[in-house]
Structure formats: C-alpha cells, structure tokens
Amino acid sequence: MNCTHAQERLTELLDPRNATTTTDEVRAHLANCPECQRDFSALHRTLSTLDTMPVENPTPRLRSNFYAMLEEENTPPPAPHW
Predict the structure, then answer these.
(1) What is d(CA 33, CA 21) in angstroms, rounded to the nearest whole number?
(2) Distance from first CA to last CA of the chain, Å, rounded?
(3) Is pTM, for the whole model, over 0.70?
(4) What is the pLDDT averaged over residues 47-75?
C-alpha cells in the first residue's frame, strides 16, 4: 500500500464499525510511515475537536429561508417570449 491509498482510507480507521482487510493494510502502512502517522494524528485531533464543539440549533427562520430557496430552485424558468 502506498501513501496516497493509505491517506484515502484514514477516516475509515476512526470509525469503529470498519474492520476490514483494507483497514488492516492501512494500519500496517501507518506502522512504517511517519508522514502518514502525522496526517492520521492531525485528522484524529481535528475530528476530536469537532466532536467537542457545541451543536447550534437552527432557527425557525433558517428553515423558512431554506424552503423558500428550494421552492425558487424548483420553479421552472419562464417560457421565452418569441
């Protein structure tokens, strides 16, 4: 396994539901690659920090704005005036 392939799979190591041959290969690569170890460590710290951030509750206005934008997107454009 090379660094590019390992880095594409780093997030899989952080999900305990993943226990595949691929994650075993990534772990083996990490054991011998200081650069990928640093990347994995940085990813782990970033995700851990995000997990500790407070979750903001959306305002009712956000919901109404969203549905207004969605309706505007779903409205067909006007027919051309020939």
Answers:
(1) 18
(2) 61
(3) no
(4) 90
